[in-house]
Amino acid sequence: MAVSGRLLSVVAALLLFVLALELLKAGAGGVTPALRGLGVSGMAGGVGIGWLAACGLLSGSPVAAIALSLLASGALTSAEAFGMIAGSRLGASFVVLLVGGLDDLRAGRREGRSAYIGVAALVATAVVYLPAMALAWRGLESGALTWLRIEGRALEGVVGTLYGPVLSAAAHLPRLGLFAAGVAALLLAFRAFDRALPEVGGGDRPLLPADHVVYRPWFMFGVGLAVTALTLSVSVSLSLLVPLAARGYVRRENVWPYILGANVTTLVDTLLAGALVGHPDAARMVALLMAAVTLLSLPAVFVFPRTFGRAIDRVARGATTTVGAVAAFVALLLAVPVALLALL
Amino acid sequence: MDVLVYVDPSPRGEWALSVAAQLAAAGTAALHLLATEEDAALDPDLLSRARARLSPGPSVTESVRPGPAERAVVAEASARRPGLVVVPPAGRGAIARMLKGSRVATVVRSVRAPVLVARRPPERIGRVLAALSGRESTARVAAAALDLERDLGVRVAFVHVASEVALPFGAPPGAGEPPSSSEAVRRALRARGREDALVEREGLVIEEVLEEFDRGAFHLLLVGSRGEEAAGFGTEDVTVRLLLRCPGSTLIVPRL
Q1: Which candidate from A211, A213, A242 shows the least CB-CB separation from B229?
Q2: B231 and A209: CB-CB below 8 Å?
Q3: Strand partners of residue B222
Q4: Cβ neighbours of residue B11 under 8 Å, at least 6 residues apart?
Q5: What is the ipTM of this complex?
Q6: Is the pLDDT of residue B228 over 60?
Q7: Residues of B with CB under 8 A from a CB of A
Q8: What is the 3-state secondary structure (H, E, C) of A223-291?
Q9: How far is B101 from chain A (nearest CA, A)?
């Protein structure tokens, strides 16, 4: 695709993204009873629904954007939305695990070789995100980054100019339908973002020979940051390693720092959604989570990379010794969000 | 074989002399002792004591060069072109290494000969582990290990760590077998009739090699030099990492 075509895709994606957020806000009331019926209450419930929704949509970014729209419309509290955003990240890593497991089944492997990356992604994400959630929430409550508060009325003019007539007409539709249309628009927006990505690989030499070269952790952390800042999704970012690494393999040493980097910039689009939804704390919430995730990732990358890498490798290897072990690990982890919704 | 031995005035210097003595006793080496001018000036008996530690043995020559140690070793190695360089580690901690660099890493990167970093050698080196990557250095490291087996009567084992994992939907369907590096190692050893001495492990390369070294109570680790890993900016020097972290002695087999 030509550069002009890609730019057009980005503009279309941004316009769709804004429309999607508005439709989600308008339709939020339609899903509130369902959310309460599912047991979404408090931060733990938010984590549970975010995790499951990311599994359902096969991506975390749309779920995080939905969480912010529900926050802006008052359907979720700050704690619930915050939990849902963090849960969406865990769910997105869970999707990588599911995809890896399916790939192992498809390839007829007895060991979970592709699932290894999914387990590594999920464990690395959980180890960083769970303490990061506590840190970011503390920051949110103590009033950190208050300069990032964006009042809703600051955006009303822009949104009104862009979509005033559309939203006025849509106001007469059932709210559940509006919400579904918002989700569809959001998924289309992310697809348009993906279409704008340049094609990588295909040459004689791989751009990143991560299948036979061991990179320094800080380097792969940087690559994860950069690639995911462009792709906005950890799973898309990981799939980009396929053409980058050319052979379809990657060395274990290169996996976990890449995931840690990806986990930071995968929140870039959520930050944008936070700035657009019109809730004063939305952008601040995401920025604090990004800051906490970065802060907690840096020691693992720069201070004790060997220990961290070894721990992740041990868990990932243990969970992927056989396809049966992968299935047991998946079932166990699927029970976590369900338990969060049912018990807390 | 002409062996260049750096004589370190610290207690670690004894490690290099112990290895040199074993090489001399095997009758395969002519030794050349090297000290820095600064060390020789501070301790005029340094080289004669080292020579006495090695006798009786084959021909032993000696020389001094201006320090620091790594510069002296590199200069002497360039001038003499020895078959092997034996150095003890400088014993620098992480901060000192960050500020001054690693002595052994500098020697390994600058010298074209094999470098043996002597660390706590036993009275007789009897068990040798050769780490094979499955790439360009595999044949050289395997050959060097089998030469040691023949010349010194040591027992050699080989280890290969498969650290590659498949990217989801990156590998072609039916790709159930491990990547080709494992097969390359097996092929290289099969050609030498030593496939039975291979231990295959999965995981992070450095950690798995060191774990195997520890598990087998090996005395000496053989690894290939950086070469194939030198993909440019941001790459890890696995060879140097291994020699800095290995609890025993390490022999780095250079590129041709």
Answers
A1: A213
A2: yes
A3: B130, B251
A4: none
A5: 0.83
A6: no
A7: 135, 163-176, 179, 181, 202-207, 228-229, 231, 233-236, 238
A8: HHHHHHHHHCCHHHHHHHHHHHHCCCEEEHHHHHHHHHHHHHHCCHHHHHHHHHCCCCCHHHHHHHHHH
A9: 17
- Chain A residue with CA closest to B177: the answer is A109
How many angstroms separate the CA atoms of A55 and A338, rounded?
A: 12
Q: How confident is the model at residue B174 (pLDDT cuts 50, 70, 90)?
A: low
pLDDT of residue A93: 84
A189 neighbors A183 (Cβ within 8 angstroms)? no
Task: Give the phi and the psi of residue A92 in degrees, each rounded to 5.
Answer: -65, -40
Q: Which domains does chain B have, with CATH numbers?
A: 2-117 (3.40.50.620), 127-253 (3.40.50.620)
Min Cα–Cα distance to chain A from B145, Å: 23
Quick: pLDDT tens for B88-107.
998 777 787 777 778 888 89
E strands in B98-173: 115-117, 127-131, 155-162, 164-166
CA-based nearest distance B224→chain A, Å:
14
Q: What is the DSSP letter of B51?
A: H
| Mean pLDDT of the A83-106 span | 86
Q: By the 8 A CB rule, do B72 and B103 touch?
A: no
Write down the pLDDT at residue B159: 96
Cβ pair A59, A235 in contact under 8 A:
yes
Q: Which two tokens stand for residue B109?
A: 């990167």
Cα–Cα distances (Å) from A191 to A41, A62, B38, B163, in that order, read: 31, 11, 68, 33
- Spatial separation of the C-alpha atoms in residues B21 and B114, rounded to whole Å: 18
Residues A299, A91 contacting (CB under 8 angstroms): no
The side-by-side arrangement of strands in the sheet containing B60-65 is: B60-65, B30-36, B2-6, B84-87, B115-117, B249-253, B220-224, B127-131, B155-162, B198-202
Q: pTM for this one?
A: 0.87
| Residue B105 DSSP SS3 | helix
Residue range B63-89: mean pLDDT, rounded = 93
Q: Mean of the pLDDT values across residues B225-249?
A: 80
Q: What CA–CA distance (Å, rounded) separates A292 from B242?
A: 33
Would you give the DSSP letter of residue B248? S
Mean pLDDT of chain B: 87
> Taken in order A89, A94, A97, A99, is the CA torsion positive or negative?
negative
| Beta-bridge partners for B251 | B116, B222
